Amino acid sequence: TLHETALLGPVPAASPAAGATPAGLETRGVSAWFGDHKVLERVSLSMAPGSVTALIGPSGCGKSTYLRILNRMHEMVRGAALAGEVLLGGQDVYDPAARPADVRKRIGMVFQKPNPFPAMTVYENVASGLRLAGIKGVDKDEVVEDALRRAGLWNEVQGRLRSPGGALSGGQQQRLCIARSLAVSPDVLLMDEPCSALDPTSTRRIEETIAQLEQQVTIVIVTHNMQQAARVSRHCAFFLAGEDQPGRVVEAGPTEQIFEHPVDPRTADYVHGRF
Ligand code: ADP
Ligand code: MG
């Protein structure tokens, strides 16, 4: 039978100061629709502060939709509807008093295709995160360097801060996007197949960056690469949609359990590449 398992609780009640433990994320009974088409069915997951959670499952089972729900991008999609609760550090992300822009400041997103501003310099790409988030009164040079260091890119670009972002390699552009997200000190970083467009070496760099960020940022990564899920995550959630059935979490738990001792035979089939 299908079951939904909480990964790890509990989440702190309030947002921490910069440098302290980031807030965790939790969804309770989240369902989603596009018009009449139900695409997610009661997804309840808890992503502990500073943990790395991998979302796995075949295409079309709602992983990207779930990520967009987490940072309120879902409500920007025409015809999109939502039920259930999303909590960041115990606070309702969909509280009418919480502004979507403030939510997205605390929950950054990186996409499959690196999307830095190509004509903007490396420096300004990272600093643009601050401007978009309305953050003023910080030492920009310091923030940019710190974000680039945390993204594992500083050594490669410290002499190229005035080069256009578009002049970097694909893998560097992806780490630049990570740095742009990190500049505003988010609690959560959502990554939607961040390595799918990258070569193995660049992929490895991103994985190293994720490992460095563990504990500092709560990370949720969608990946089709099972080795990658096993390498980077501590917890895994396996999503599956049926024919004419919305996506659900078939099984969630510690990554080792999902890979070594899955409870559901469909999980075993999926992680071993049998469908
Ligand atoms: P995944 O990321 O797991 O491949 P998605 O979240 O992209 O899955 O898609 C889940 C389902 O929602 C699919 O059936 C897809 O066609 C549908 N869907 C995604 N985005 C939209 C949209 N903007 N409008 C209508 N349907 C959508
Ligand atoms: Mg997707």
UniProtKB/TrEMBL annotation:
Domain ABC transporter: 25-271
Coiled coil: none
Matching SMART domains: AAA
Example of a GO cellular component annotation carried by this entry: membrane
PROSITE patterns: ABC_TRANSPORTER_1, ABC_TRANSPORTER_2
Gene Ontology MF terms in the entry: ATP binding; ATP hydrolysis activity; phosphate transmembrane transporter activity
GO biological process, one term: phosphate ion transmembrane transport
Domain of life: Bacteria
Keywords, ordered alphabetically: ATP-binding, Nucleotide-binding, Translocase, Transport
Protein name: Phosphate ABC transporter ATP-binding protein
UniProt organism field: Actinospica durhamensis
